């Protein structure tokens, strides 16, 4: 009986000694402070305090993960990797921690390790949709369409998501048009922002269905993918077209264009296209684009003129010739080409806009030709923000500042995020001497288009006028 009492007393004393241990006390104090810092979004402090608590409360392995996640919220990739690495060696990670650890490696440009981390995380948590999203991202970057498709199918088996449906639909355009249409429609119904791209792809697949030649079917799909800026998949579509019919000149030409879009040269493919068919306007137009990117304006112009000779009634080749003439400094020929484009397509707002902007950019016949062209564009598309922006800018350049202001405000009303309209409005305010309003519009332009052309121009004007 005395022995039993001694044992109980000893255990109680041991527990008391642990509880009142300075190290343990410090651990709980750090834990309390860490939770408070986390609540205040002081993530760097939280990470440091969770780590300190973990070192004092050695049985609380979960604190290492909490420290790592706090570092992740802070955006500290190195600390996230270090702390979650310790947590991983102590206890199994949560799904959130697997995702964070992989993302830290990804942000550090170690994409291969990120892939392995997310694969391990997905194996541990096979129903976590966010890990499948991450895996799909890596597979997409690697061009591994099969693995990407499998990851998206698994992801969607657990939860519907507009972007996942859209990405899966894109992949299926190359192998299963019916399935692609189903996935794309689901994406559009869940999020209207996908609707324009879905409509473009739907039209491309409709054209493809009318083609009996497999090569032409893939060309139609590839062009649709290109229109929605999915040039990686477009290249695969054009490769399939070339494989289906190696003598199809357009397939080679479009393959060359896709490869340029994907950072390759593409010149050899375009040369092969010309060898197969020198009388195809599209081939010459795509070669014109190639030479334009190479900085060879003369050769680009020659290609566009050849396209226009083959298809004299196509306004696109006239507009392309106008651009090349303008780059060469031949403004008279450029003006004639742009005007010819509007004559060939008098109801197409795009060519009237191009004519108006050409006059504005070169300060050429703004009142006689540029402004009337902009008005004609606005008459054809009275509620189109880019068209209203062009008209407003032409008014401004013509010195009709009040008309310009009202028109640009209309453009912004229809499209509040149209950075170029805000930039033009700012410049119009400066011409009116309204510096306060100009300052506000310039700052808004920078916010809307920080890394774009409009944003950079706005930043330069701010530096010049508001040092």
Outline the structure in words.
The model has no long low-confidence stretch (mean pLDDT 93). The chain has 27 helices and no strands. Helices cover 80% and strands 0% of the residues. With 467 residues, the protein is mainly α. The protein has a domain of 69 residues: Tetratricopeptide repeat domain (Serine Threonine Protein Phosphatase 5, Tetratricopeptide repeat, Alpha Horseshoe), CATH 1.25.40.10.
Helix content: over 70%
Rounded radius of gyration (Å): 31 Å
Helix count equals 27
CATH architecture of the domain at 278-346: Alpha Horseshoe
Give the SSE string: HHHHHHHHHHHHHHHHHHHHHHHHHHH
Work out the number of β strands: 0
In short:
The chain has helices spanning 2-19, 22-39, 43-56, 62-74, 77-90, 95-107, 111-124, 129-142, 145-158, 162-172, 177-190, 195-210, 214-227, 231-244, 249-261, 267-276, 281-293, 297-310, 315-328, 331-344, 349-361, 366-380, 385-397, 401-414, 419-432, 435-448, 453-465. With 467 residues, the protein is mainly alpha-helical.
Characteristics of this structure?
single chain, about 475 residues, mainly alpha, Serine Threonine Protein Phosphatase 5, Tetratricopeptide repeat, 27 helices, globular
Topology:
Elements: H1 2-19, H2 22-39, H3 43-56, H4 62-74, H5 77-90, H6 95-107, H7 111-124, H8 129-142, H9 145-158, H10 162-172, H11 177-190, H12 195-210, H13 214-227, H14 231-244, H15 249-261, H16 267-276, H17 281-293, H18 297-310, H19 315-328, H20 331-344, H21 349-361, H22 366-380, H23 385-397, H24 401-414, H25 419-432, H26 435-448, H27 453-465
